[in-house]
Design a protein that fits this description.
Elements: E1 2-3, E2 5-6, H1 16-25, E3 30-33, H2 40-56, E4 60-64, H3 67-72, E5 77-80, H4 87-94, E6 99-104, H5 107-116, E7 120-123, H6 141-150, E8 155-158, H7 166-171, E9 176-178, H8 180-184, H9 189-198
Parallel strand pairs: 1-9, 2-3, 3-4, 4-5, 5-6, 6-7, 7-8, 8-9
Helix pairs in contact: 1-2
Domain Thiamine phosphate synthase/TenI: 4-183
Keywords: Magnesium, Metal-binding, Thiamine biosynthesis, Transferase
GO biological process, one term: thiamine diphosphate biosynthetic process
């Protein structure tokens, strides 16, 4: 339970490596490397660097969408969206011991992800979000509650979350949450993450 860290090179003020390191210093146990623009080679190189930071803290290192990069650098797993590679293919490429998280926009997608074998679902977007304009219509707190009732796997809330609405997200039962803009675009990544971590205490 707690803050789920996702990188954002475009918003970051101090770079992904420093952001991930700061997050892990705050007790974050999962870091997801997300970059839709980098080429495979650059992404692989940065993934190796971020993975070694995670290894030092015994945190899990996941890669968003690029299953082949995750396989090549032996990441702990991947996070895939509904429009990315299908779960079965990702599982085949990574093997049975890796973590696969799946984005869900509604109850049906969450249940399907669990049935396919997903390790957790990322429910998104809860509120309207600037970091992912194509994320779809905000689903609100009700979706977290409904998905929590429908599945047994952990539920991570993503999309438009900030300190003014995060307490509601935790109350709704989210096992974790991510607030990309509120954290990586801030002057003090550690201070911001700790505020979110406190909500889970």
């Amino acid at each position: 339970k707690g803050y789920y860290f996702i990188t954002d090179r475009g918003l970051s003020r101090q770079g992904n490596a420093r952001d991930v390191s700061d997050a892990l210093d705050c007790g974050v146990t999962v870091a997801q490397y997300r970059d839709k623009d980098l080429g495979m080679k650059e992404m692989y190189k940065e993934a190796l660097a971020l993975k070694s930071i995670c290894r030092r803290s015994k945190a899990l290192f996941l890669i968003n969408d690029r299953v082949e990069v995750a396989a090549a650098c032996d990441a702990d797993g991947v996070h895939i969206g509904q429009e990315d590679m299908v779960y079965g293919e990702a599982r085949k490429m990574l093997g049975k011991n890796k973590i696969i998280g799946v984005t869900a926009h509604n109850i049906e997608e969450a249940v399907n992800a669990q049935e396919a074998g997903a390790d957790y679902v990322g429910v998104s977007p809860i509120f309207s979000t600037a970091t992912k304009p194509d994320a779809g219509k905000p689903a609100g707190i009700k979706l977290i509650e409904a998905v929590k009732r429908a599945v047994r796997i952990p539920v991570i809330a993503i999309g438009g979350i900030n300190l003014s609405n995060a307490a509601e997200v935790v109350r709704a039962g989210a096992d974790g949450l991510c607030a990309i803009s509120a954290v990586v675009a801030s002057d003090n990544v550690k201070a911001e993450i700790l505020k979110f971590q406190k909500l889970f205490e």
